[in-house]
Here is the input.
Amino acid sequence: MAEIRNITSAPRRKRPGASGPGPRQRSVDADAVRATPSGQSLWQRLQEFGQVVASAATQHLAPELLRDLDTEIATKIDAAPLATNDFGFDPWGFEKETARRCFFTSALLYRYYFRVQTRGIENLPAGRVLLIGNHAGQIAIDAAMIATACLMEGNPPRIVRGMGEYWLSRLPWLNILMVRFGSVVGTPKNCVDLLEHGEAVLAFPEGVRGMNKGFSERYQLQDFGLGFLRLALQTGTPIVPVATVGSEEQAPSLGNLESLAGILGMPAFPMVLTPVPLPVRYHVEFGEPLIFEGNANDEDHVIEEKVNIVKARLRTMLRDGLERRVGIFS
Amino acid sequence: MQKVLITGIAGGLGRLVAERLGKNMSVVGVDHTPWVGHPPQFTMITADLRKKKVEDVFRRERPDIVVHLGLERHNFDPALRHDVNVGGTKRVIEAAAAYGTSNIIILTSSYVYGALPRNPFYMDEETTLNVSRHYPEIRDIAEMDAIATNFLWRYPEIRTAVLRPASTLGPRTHSSIATYLRLNPSPKLIGFDPLVQFIHELDVAEAIQKAIDTGVRGVFNIVGPGAVPISTAIRESGGTALPVPETPTRVLLRNLFRWGLFPFPADAVDFIKYPCTIDGRRFREATGFLAQRSLGETLRSVRP
Here is the structure.
């Protein structure tokens, strides 16, 4: 873990004036944010993350740092196992240049806005793997942060293939972007093809039930679909549970207006209280791979038992993550 | 020497296939337009697939192999399209069965799956033929495909192969996608850029040859060297893309098509909006077919 961190932060340390040896901006945290007792007032919390953002911006968003980050991402993408054709597209439409720009944005968020702490990246096996996570936060920033973690911290770097909501492929531009940085429409066929090709596939079996749930239900796993486990059995793929702590507080919502969503043809219509996601600190933890055996066409209750093992593991990881966490923003 | 009957022989692909198969088979060609300057050893018959004369050809010639390429692709009259593609196919394959043909190759298109937002990349042969859901003008292709597939199961003793090739390009091909790429500028929808698979006409001819040689039965997707976004395809084939907004384009196309001014109906827009990419694994495993021309070569063949 520590080793991987050091490797990724190595280019940054060459910068003159970098304070302290700490990988992942420990200096910022130490200066600006002290361990936050949970009994703080809202105003104090606002001030606190204002300081975090301001100090991160002044200390770190220097042009050479952006250039370094861009180079770092390009190197990582080049090191990732990819099968691109003569025109730079892989069979699922992934393309390096667009992906580089997308990952640049998400890496900025990853390092300086959500200040993601990643644990257990060494649990990511080589070859085919199904990453199963808890979904939250109204928009799929959790997916972007997990993908960025696998690219920036993975050894070797991995391009994570997200199983996107069907709705996304109808949206102008977004449908192109989603495909260019490696995601696909989340159909079983796409998932099987990607796994058989040896890719890392990220799926959230809760879907919009999880992502667009109300604030009161944070960290409560919603119903899981069974499909992902059948596909894992069918293709002999290890499942790596990925617990994300932080995303559940990034955009508090009163709940999902399903009727209005239906009228507008959207998958969900969350009543969000904040205009932009809050700069919560993300903690992404990759669990040990779970390998299941059995018939992919077993009855639902047989599959459900296996799904419950994945859910239980995720729940444990979330609970431990919440216990380790000092404050929502720190 | 085996005798092969080729329908639609005067078309670009028909001529390629005839020249290729003609090397070691005797060729009988059927088309509603004559092939001027065809090789003298070919027997050419001018006949309309909608007419009973076609059956007489089968009775007289009794071909061992039938390659059915006679398709109406760009036509402003949907009734005529339907008669040729659905009625004609039925007539040809029933006659082939009646007069002792042992091997039938029927060429349809990957378009039968339709371009829909929920399409996975790499649809296999079991995928529903969804094209008629949104694109009634070419539902005859899906119907024709269904007739052929049905025939496959009704006559287990006849080696029937239904081939669904990806978008075909080549100097002699006038497929929809080739016509589209030759428009210059080719209209491209703002905010959409789906992956499109291409295959060279020579590779399609090769696939037909492989299907005959191996005598495979079944429904098969035929894919070329891979897929690129439609914008890349336009650029690499030497054209220019004209970004257009979707709704006005559909309205314009609807009217141009109605008045017979432009060969694409409004719903053809789906094919430059959503992917319709297919999985060619089954044919590759059954016959060992692998497209020989690279993507670049295939794309550049639009403007030789």
